[in-house]
Amino acid sequence: MNDDFYILYALISSTGLLLAAASIAILRFQRKAIESDAFWESPVGAALQIDAQVKDTSASRERQQHLEERMAALQRIVDELSQREKATQLASAPRVLPFENAVRMAKQGASVEELTRSCGLNIGEAQLIRRLHGPTLN
Asked: Is 138 helix (H, G, I), strand (E, B) or coil?
């Protein structure tokens, strides 16, 4: 029975030592993890992270080039649509030129008939412009 006691005592002792070693290892691991987190949050660690990101630029360059190509294509589409809109606005914009020309002619003394014939105005428009801008007779 004495031998069994020594074996049992040796097993319990070795288990205790293993538990103590495991506890120490866990505590060291936690301390190293805290130190590592503190390092990466420090200015030096942040600089190293940025440096690592800069070194990984081959894939970034390809993505950036792809995005630039897409942006250029979209810019061409926007320019084309802008030109179409300007052309549509010019086509649908009312023509001010006949009225400006009619006002100038009325100031020079043109008759209602001349205004309708030259500027494409109807008789009412020509009469109004003649009254507003024509020479006043006293």
From this structure: coil
Closest alpha carbon to 126 in 135, 109, 114? 114
pLDDT lower than 50: segments of the chain: 138
Structural domain that includes position 65: 57-93
Place of tokens 């009412």: 124
Angle between helices 123-133 and 97-107 (to 10 degrees): 50
Query: Is 88 strand, coil or helix?
Result: helix
The per-residue pLDDT for 48 is 73
Total tally of structural domains belonging to the chain: 3
Angle, CA of 69, 74 and 80, to the nearest 5°: 130
Whole-structure pTM value: 0.33
Contact 49, 40 (CB under 8 A): yes
Cα separation, 110 vs 117, in Å, equals 11
